[in-house]
Amino acid sequence: MNETVRRVGIVGIGNVGKAAASAIVHNNIADELYISDIDSERAKGEAWDFADSIELTSSRTRVSEVPLEGLAACDIILVAVTERSEIPSSSRLELLKGTAAITYDIVPKLRKVGFKGKYVIATNPCDIITYLFYRLSGLPKNHVIGTGTALDSMRLRRQLSNVIGGVDPRSINAFMVGEHGDSQIAAWSQVTVGGQPLDQFEEDNFDEFGPIDRDQVEDAARHFGWEIHKRKGNTQFGIGNELAFFAKSILNDARTVTAASVIQNGEYGQHDLAIGVPTIIGRNGVEKIIRFRLNEKEQEGFNASAELIKSYIKQTLEEHEESAAK
Ligand SMILES: NC(=O)c1ccc[n+]([C@@H]2O[C@H](COP(=O)([O-])OP(=O)(O)OC[C@H]3O[C@@H](n4cnc5c(N)ncnc54)[C@H](O)[C@@H]3O)[C@@H](O)[C@H]2O)c1
């Protein structure tokens, strides 16, 4: 039998890493799950705790703790590292200094041991960290994927569902695009409900639902993460499942459409950054970027978001290139 072993790694086994590990193990997404953290003893404890849960699931995933270099043979590495002292802040961009330093530490090490698989990155600020992974890893563009606005897009679908009579969010096609942060925007011109453009759906059902307050729905989607963060100090289950979903889409070559932060080739008029856009995810990582024809207002919002990401990328590269040159 030609056995194909599905190997997934997780670097950073805090709140998000643990939720991702749980989703991977309990949904039988990998045959082998490798966990790595700078705190190797805690990571070992987590791995052993997961191993204890396997017999009660339909999965046979073997879970083990490894040093960073032990992730080299993985098909996919899920990235959920951050400084443990991460303090609640009003912007994900404030986390950049700490997470950029970790990125500059771990990516060259994984490159050196020959990691050739796919990275899926949750670490914030997600778009900038995704770009740094691309730049430092030497991997092709399609191998480096940030979760970007994937979770925000699910929130958008749910918020919209709430104001149109509870239509199953899975029957709604709606995406947040741009930065995984305050500057993201809803691509309203592209939204469909059961394939029907939202404007038509709204017109046909006006007597029942009245006008849709798009600004309110969009704002609620944009800020939902903070509403969770304010109450429990982190978010983990949505993003943990999101990471596992990306892993499954790659391993199963599912060619699922999702928002993701991916390196741009001019599809939206932007180059040399990672930013959230609808993508098709399959065996090769990013199979395709779907190019929405945004309206003028949306394109302006998207461009502003892209400029913000680019300014932070520039600043980070300057800081690190300068200190490397000294
Ligand atoms: N993209 C999203 O939608 C989304 C949602 C939620 C959280 N996040 C982000 O996910 C990241 C993780 O959040 P969390 O709540 O799990 O944090 P956490 O503090 O609970 O866990 C972070 C882990 O990273 C480990 N770590 C730190 N430096 C390391 C290194 N050099 N090598 C290996 N491991 C290292 C820490 O020991 C810790 O276990 C954060 O950047 C957070 O902002 C993203």
Automatic annotation (TrEMBL):
Catalytic machinery residues: 180 (proton acceptor)
Protein name: L-lactate dehydrogenase
Annotated Pfam families: Ldh_1_C, Ldh_1_N
Record's keyword terms, sorted: NAD, Oxidoreductase
Binding site for substrate: 84, 92, 124, 155
Residue spans crossing the bilayer: none
UniProt record similarity statement: Belongs to the LDH/MDH superfamily. LDH family.
Coiled coil: none
Lactate/malate dehydrogenase N-terminal domain span: 7-146
Family matches, as CDD domains: HicDH_like
InterPro entries for the chain: L-lactate/malate_DH, L-lactate_DH_AS, Lactate/malate_DH_C, Lactate/malate_DH_N, Lactate_DH/Glyco_Ohase_4_C, NAD(P)-bd_dom_sf
Record domain Lactate/malate dehydrogenase C-terminal: where: 149-319
An annotated Gene Ontology molecular function: L-lactate dehydrogenase (NAD+) activity
Organism whose genome encodes this protein: Sporolactobacillus nakayamae
Taxon lineage: Bacteria, Bacillati, Bacillota, Bacilli, Bacillales
Positions that bind NAD(+): 12-17, 37
Domain of life according to the entry: Bacteria
A Gene Ontology biological process term: lactate metabolic process
